[in-house]
Specification:
PH-domain like, 8-stranded mixed β-sheet, nucleus, RTT106/SSRP1_HistChap/FACT, histone binding, PH-like_dom_sf, transcription
């Protein structure tokens, strides 16, 4: 026979709800691990007193009773597994696995039996229902009635609030059956009663969750938080884990108590109790017990008189009473040397602590995620800035946690930690578009030098734009001076086009119509060549002088070979980083020497640009650009004149005036070209209007 039996998808009944997990039976005992909380119930084989097999709602169930009265119920077994379990119990636990069916008659009268921590309501020899007395929160009595109230479980969709038992009177003298029933319940119930003096009291401790200042009274079986508004009584059996976490400022400490079930304040549930301590605060503590009792109960873990830091005393007392280990951060260290990472979860900023077996975030809201419940993690680019990234965790149940606004310097440390813990990384290999960002994260020292290079590049771009602006021709200056009027001209054109549509427009309107299209042609000319200007800037004239280098680049070119010789085999990236460090460490006098060289190079560049702008090649390019603009202007005028001649027959006087209107760019230095331009205009108009006579042209020129 096998030494162990394992069952998956087994449900443990706890306070009315079914918690799924894994059950393992071995020679040493029975172990159940809760899949949700990770809590482990360990029952030693020597403690088992009885095993019962019975049919339940989820198939078949196993009920185990221990010698100290505790009851454990597990459901989800198949009927075929009974023989295997029965043989295992006989061979390793020397117990007979009994089969007992529940009574389903529906009767509401019977006999109550108290066995250990279990109340059983039986009809005949068959149990109808059983109530673990540890679930009872209050017991009240009436004339012939006993009422039991229960602790509420937030995980259960439907909770049992209370049960009332009618106890008939008996003829026995001196014995009240109602009081006897209540005493049996209270002796085993989880009713918190502050009887006697507290072992010790901690005054005015700062509590972050729930927020406020509380006096903490330590009793043998529970913890009492007494505040100005609320009181909480926390049984030690509900404490799941203890954490002691150093704050990032190295001056404060968090002490976190994980609770299951949580404490309640109205509709709010607190799964974590978080205390904040200053490292500098000390205390001298005296336990309200004699030395023999302290030695007998705590076995050297506590002494009657203790002194030290306040957080050490609180954690030491809690560890001894709860009998659980205190979890502290492992060997993780962030970029700043702290054992935590500053980040944001939901709407609040807090600290994320990578532990040896999970992550914990404090403090609003507190979150604890174990490694064994993580499906995968993901490193994502920050939504607002590239200076930070997001760390996403998705559990096997599908719950997703996003810790945002993490400084990018923390990426390397966090990635190495996650990789060492062998967690599944969703974007291993890095997503497209994020590679450059995360490659930079790997070496955070480069960031300072990169910022300096970016500043130098920006200064170079500004100098280049200024040089290009100074070398541009007068035509571009005219365009720039005309730009502010574009909006007004567009409004005027829209108004004129509406006016020309009516047949009652006069000579004044036609004159305005002839003048406006000339400006419209100019606006079209302004907008289109700009694309060509930007395109022409991409392909620069090879004859143009090269712009000067900055002081840093002059020094780098002169020192590059020396750096290579001092550091053989250095890469280009490392060389740039090393050069940035040397430049920053350089004295002000040496930098001024290179600044003077850069200033001399800038003067030479400006002198060369002036000569280049006066050269024939540059002048030829300007004349070509000017000629193209004139051709477009003439074509635009001809199209507009042809359109206006069809809409009105009284255009010929205005046409002469439009011929006389010329922009600065249209007027040629050669006066003889005016007649040729007029002839070209008349040919473009065609048969719509006769060519103007020499007298008209003379009067128009006047």
């Amino acid at each position: 026979m096998a030494d162990t039996l394992e069952f998956n998808e087994i449900y443990q009944e706890v306070k009315g709800s079914m918690n799924d997990g894994r059950l393992r039976l071995s020679r040493q005992g029975v172990i159940f691990k809760n899949s949700k909380t990770g809590k482990v119930d360990n029952i030693q084989a020597s403690e088992l007193a009885e095993g019962v097999w019975r049919r339940v709602a989820l198939g078949h169930g196993l009920k185990l009773l221990t010698k100290n009265g505790h009851v454990y119920k597990y459901d989800g077994f198949r009927e075929s597994e009974f023989d295997k379990l029965s043989d295992f119990f006989k061979a390793h636990y020397c117990l007979e696995l009994a089969e007992k069916d529940l009574c389903v008659k529906g009767w509401n009268w019977g006999t109550v039996r108290f066995g250990g921590q279990l109340l059983s309501f039986d009809i005949g020899e068959q149990p109808v229902f059983e109530i673990p007395l540890s679930n009872v929160s209050q017991c009240t009595t009436g004339k012939n009635e006993v009422t039991l109230e229960f602790h509420q479980n937030d995980d259960a969709e439907v909770s049992l609030m209370e049960v009332r038992f009618y106890v008939p009177p008996t003829q026995e003298d001196g014995v009240d059956p109602v009081e006897a029933f209540a005493q049996n319940v209270l002796s085993k119930a989880d009713v918190i009663q502050a009887t006697g003096d507290a072992i010790c009291i901690f005054r005015e401790l700062q509590c972050l969750t729930p927020r406020g200042r509380y006096d903490i009274r330590i009793y043998p079986t529970f913890l009492h938080l007494h505040g100005k508004t609320f009181d909480y009584k926390i049984p030690y059996t509900t404490v799941l884990r203890l954490f002691l976490l150093p704050h990032k400022d190295q001056r404060q400490m968090f002490f976190v108590i994980s609770l299951d079930p949580p404490i309640k304040q109205g509709q709010t549930r607190y799964h974590f109790l978080i205390l904040l301590f200053s490292k500098d605060e000390d205390i001298s503590l005296t336990l309200n017990m004699n030395e023999e009792e302290v030695e007998k109960r705590f076995e050297g873990r506590l002494t009657k008189n203790m002194s030290g830091s306040l957080y050490e005393m609180v954690s030491r007392v809690m560890k001894a009473l709860v009998n659980r280990k205190i979890t502290v951060p492992g060997n993780f260290q962030g970029h700043s040397g702290a054992q935590c990472i500053t980040c944001s979860y939901k709407a609040s900023s807090g600290l994320l602590y990578p532990l040896e077996r999970g992550f914990i975030y404090v403090h609003k809201p507190p979150v604890h995620i174990r490694f064994d419940e993580i499906s995968f993690v993901n490193f994502a680019r920050g939504t607002t800035t590239t200076r930070s990234f997001d760390f996403e965790i998705e559990t096997k149940q599908g719950t997703q946690y996003t810790f945002s606004s993490i400084e990018r310097e923390e990426y390397g440390k966090l990635f190495d930690f996650v990789n060492a813990k062998k967690l599944n990384i969703k974007n291993r290999g890095l997503k497209e578009g994020m590679k450059q960002s995360y490659d930079e994260y790997a070496d955070s020292d480069e960031d300072q030098h990169d910022a300096y290079l970016e500043r130098m590049k920006e200064e170079g771009k500004i100098r280049e734009e200024n040089a290009n602006d100074s070398s541009d021709g007068s035509g571009e200056e005219t365009d720039e001076s005309f730009n502010p009027g574009e909006e007004d001209d567009d409004v005027a054109e829209e108004f004129d086009s509406n006016a020309s549509a009516s047949s009652s427009s006069g000579d004044g309107d036609s004159d305005r119509e002839d003048k406006k299209p000339a400006k419209k042609a100019k606006i079209v000319k302004d907008r289109k060549p700009r694309k060509k200007q930007t395109e022409s800037k991409k392909g620069k004239d090879p004859n143009a002088p090269k712009r000067p280098m900055s002081a840093y680049m002059l020094w780098l070119n002169a020192s590059r070979e020396k750096i290579k010789s001092d550091h053989p085999g250095i890469s280009i990236t490392d060389l740039s980083k090393k050069a940035g460090e040397l430049w920053k460490a350089m004295s002000k006098e040496k930098k001024e020497e290179w600044d003077r060289k850069a200033e001399d190079a800038r003067r030479d560049y400006e002198k060369a640009m002036k000569e280049y702008s006066k050269s024939d090649s540059h002048r030829g390019e300007r004349s070509k650009k000017k000629k193209k603009k004139q051709e477009k202007l003439v074509k635009g005028k001809g199209d507009k004149k042809g359109a206006t001649s069809k809409s009105s027959s009284s255009k010929s006087p205005a046409k002469g005036m439009s011929d006389s209107f010329k922009s600065k760019e249209f007027v040629s230095s050669d006066e003889s070209s005016s007649a040729e331009s007029k002839k070209e205009d008349s040919e473009d108009e065609g048969a719509a209007s006769p060519p103007p006579s020499s007298e008209d042209s003379a009067s128009g020129s006047d």
